[in-house]
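Q: Please design a sequence for this.
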C-alpha cells in the first residue's frame, strides 16, 4: 500500500497524513508535486482520472481517491482509536459534520484560492482558464458567516462532532490551516472556534510543515 501525497499546506493530502499519525499507521508516501504537474500526467490519471491528490494505491494496484474515503478504508483496517464514531449515531454525526465543513467552509476557501490568489493565477491560465476574482471575493463573507455559525455550534462542545476528536476535526483543521496560509483568517470574535483550533493544534498530529512550500504563513 502507498499514498500519493503532496506536502503541506495541500489540505486534502494533509487530512490523510494527520489521520495516519492519529492512528499510528505507517504507509510509504510517494511525493507527487502539484507544481510539476505530476498529478495530470497520463500515468497518474490512470490512478485518479480527476488528476487530484491524495490517492491510496493498494498492493494489487487498486486505487482509492478522495481523502475521506481513503481514511474510511483505513479506519476499517485499523479501528482503534475510532475516528469515524463508535455507534450508528456517532457515525452519522461525524458524517454530517464532514459534509457541513466541506460544503460550508472548505468550498469558499477553495474558491478564494482558485479565483483570487496570485499563486493560482498562472496555473489557471496554463489550463486555459481565468480567475473570476469578483466571484472569488464573494466567498470571503460566506466563509466568515460559516465561521460564525461554527463558533455558535462549538459553544460548550470540545470537538466538532461531540466530545471526542474525529475525522470531522481533521477535515476542519486542514481547511483552516490552508485558509490561514492563503491569508484567510478566523474572525477574532469566534472565541469557541479559536479555542477548538488551539485544542486540535496542540495534538502531536497537527504540526504544519511549510519548509517545502513556496507558500508561507502571512506574518
Ligand atoms: N475531494 C478531494 C479533493 C482533492 C483535491 O482537490 N486535491 C488537491 C490537492 S489539496 C489537488 O489535487 N488539486 C489539483 C487539481 O485539482 O488539479 C479529496 O478530498 O481528496
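A: Design:
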Amino acid at each position: 500500500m502507498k499514498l500519493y501525497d503532496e506536502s503541506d499546506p495541500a489540505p486534502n493530502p494533509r487530512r490523510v497524513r494527520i489521520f495516519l499519525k492519529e492512528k499510528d499507521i505507517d504507509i510509504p508516501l510517494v511525493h507527487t508535486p502539484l507544481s510539476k504537474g505530476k498529478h495530470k500526467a497520463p500515468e497518474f490519471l490512470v490512478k485518479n482520472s480527476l488528476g487530484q491528490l491524495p490517492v491510496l494505491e493498494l498492493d494489487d494496484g487498486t486505487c482509492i481517491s478522495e481523502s475521506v474515503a481513503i481514511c474510511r478504508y483505513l479506519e476499517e483496517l485499523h479501528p482503534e482509536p475510532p475516528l469515524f464514531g463508535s455507534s450508528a449515531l456517532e457515525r452519522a454525526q461525524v458524517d454530517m459534520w464532514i459534509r457541513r465543513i466541506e460544503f460550508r467552509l472548505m468550498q469558499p476557501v477553495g474558491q478564494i484560492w482558485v479565483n483570487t490568489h496570485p499563486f493560482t493565477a498562472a496555473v489557471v491560465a496554463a489550463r486555459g482558464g481565468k480567475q473570476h476574482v469578483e466571484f472569488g471575493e464573494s466567498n470571503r463573507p460566506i466563509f466568515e458567516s460559516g465561521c460564525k455559525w461554527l463558533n455558535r455550534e462549538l459553544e460548550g462542545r470540545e470537538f466538532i462532532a461531540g466530545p471526542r476528536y474525529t475525522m470531522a476535526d481533521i477535515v476542519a483543521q486542514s481547511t483552516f490551516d490552508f485558509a490561514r496560509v492563503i491569508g484567510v483568517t478566523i474572525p477574532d470574535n469566534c472565541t469557541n472556534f479559536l479555542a477548538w483550533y488551539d485544542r486540535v493544534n496542540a495534538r502531536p498530529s497537527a504540526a504544519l510543515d511549510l519548509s517545502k512550500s513556496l507558500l508561507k504563513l502571512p506574518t
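Q: Thanks. Anything notable?
A: The helical segments are 11-23, 42-45, 67-77, 88-116, 118-126, 133-153, 167-181, 191-201. Strands lie at 2-5, 29-31, 55-57, 63-65.
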